[in-house]
Amino acid sequence: MKKNLSFVLLVVLTLFFFNSSKLKANQFQMKPLEDATYRNFDGTTNVERLVQIEYKDEVSKLRYNVLEFDNNDPDIHLVTVSDYVNFKWGMKPLEGMIYSFQQKYPHLEVLGGVNGDFYDINNTGHPIAPFIEDYEVIKGSRTERNLFIIKADDSYEIGRAKSDGYEILVLDENREVKFREKIAKFNAPAANENEIAVVLSSYEGTISSSLNPLLIEASDIKYTGSSFERAKGSLSSVANIVDLDHESFLIMGKNLPEIVTTNDTVIVQHRLKDFEDVRGTMGGAEMLVENGEVSSDVTSITGFEAKVRAPRTNVGIKADGSVFFVVANGRDEDGEGVPGLTHEESGQLMKSLGAVIALRLDGGGSSTMMARNFDGTFTTLNKLSDGHMRSISNGILIVRGDIPEQPLEIKGEDTRTVFETPTNVFVDHQNNLRFSKINGATRYIITAGNKQFETSKNVFSLNSLNPGDYEIKVRVKSNLNGKTSLNSEEIFYKAKHKTTDELLNWLIKFAKNKN
Amino acid sequence: MKIRKVLGVFLLLTLALFIAGCDTTGDLNSTREQDLRNALAELTDNYELEVNIYFYDELEAEAIIKVDGNKSYYKEGEFVEFYYLREGLRDLTIYQKEGDSFNVTNSNDLKDIKYDIFRLFKYQWFTYSNNKYLLKEEYYEDLREAFNFENEEIELKAAEVVLTNKVLSDLRVTFEQERDLYYFYFKVKNINKVVIEIPEVN
To answer: Tell me, what's the ipTM?
Structure first.
């Protein structure tokens, strides 16, 4: 009896140890191979780790970088960026996109960024998933793809868009939505004057003039293959509908001729359900983490695909709503012996770093993570597996400053009054434009030559202007409290080279101390 | 014969002495130095500077500085204007124009003489040539240091001083940064004639 009991106990114990070691082998484990490196950048923090990962009986070396920012800082935002050519798409390295963004918004500071969606790398460069940039749906097809979603209130989600056909938006010169409606007929004439229709140059039929079509001169029209993505333009003041060509389109229906003026911007784009307040979307592949657990999207991958290791770029959202980015080095077996991550390991890593939901963005040679140093230069944090920065379709940037707001849409009767006009406009010795604060104003629009800037404060640095002469005026931007004010009186301002400014500052010190 | 020789030697000596007496270069140089020294000494606490800054041949900024005892004034362009009233080493009142009014603040910053460029100048740094006093190359660093710019990358490439009727009338300094040239031209005016009236602020 005792012998039997001992035998059973031995079997149970053996099974226990066998299972526990198997369990341990199935647990994702990371052992540091060197001390983590913590770095503070301008507005972001980074930690870089070299670890040994053990998972599912496999051991490999991993070097990865985490990039975070203060999600509670109201001055720091995420934006999606691209640098597409009008009427085409395009590709550019992340550092080129940062440069272009700074050229477009010199008053904003880019603090860092990562690469974005998968894309048509061998041809046009168009992104695969729906792509929203600055509240405009640049690409709306392929709604089955997962998206990292950035909302107007700086909250974030990972999910999918639902297509609801196409829509037309008419924005006035203050970027206020005058008109927004679903398009009933696309590339076909409206059945009656109550239908909104859009017709492209590829339409071969005739359009009755009784539908009062308007010719819009396009600044951009985009397709993926033969599939229409978006068009943008303004009402032609000279041409008529017979001039319709591949750089124009027709809109018709409702009372559009009474609504649209030559100062307006007309946008035709995919209508994505409940995405009006979305500032940007970035497409990805599998969900890595869902509800705090590694997603079945990656645990269910089998065969060769499950074993592939490569550099990875992932975005994760923590339980408190904060966002972080991770880039894992890879394809560096001959260098540091770092092969990269499998998809499932990516999910495990994101979960271990606190993500309750995470998405895999484009990786491999596209993986890029950059952070801005305090002197304004940028550091590339990951080792680029191509040996150089790859041209990509789009990216996500961390930026500081007054980014453009969501276009305002007044529904129902507009009872707002016009804001007072800013007065006492002048430029101080530090090149700050100053003007009177207006009650109820939340944003001001500064026009300097042919450039426009939005600011929430009544002090605005003009140091980002290139040297030259500028005529400057300010107006209050419309909001829910009031309509756009008139422009202030114009002032003349000469933007100088930095050295001239330094010499002038020296003169001020001379005057201050010479008495 | 002997007398002739003695007379000849005497004549030669006299001639040599005469020629030596005629070499006035040393005197002239010291006069020029003295002129510059006197001109610099004249710039004490009452004068006006008209300052132009050029980026190559493009006028980028025009400023006016006035000094009147314990009061000074700075104006640049249409909007930037300061009055300074010092009533003690650590008692400075600053009147800064802000649009259509002046903002008054008090500062206890100690008077910093390192910005008083004309007092830091040494007449020995310059050599007279073609009606100008040119900064000697061995003193470029000294004058650069006297300007005391925060940006160390600004290099001094040349400097000259002009006296008109023995009064310092022009200072022209050339700076270089990132291979671009900036010309810092000072015109000195109204020595001992400046009157500054501090604006009345409610």
So the answer is: 0.87
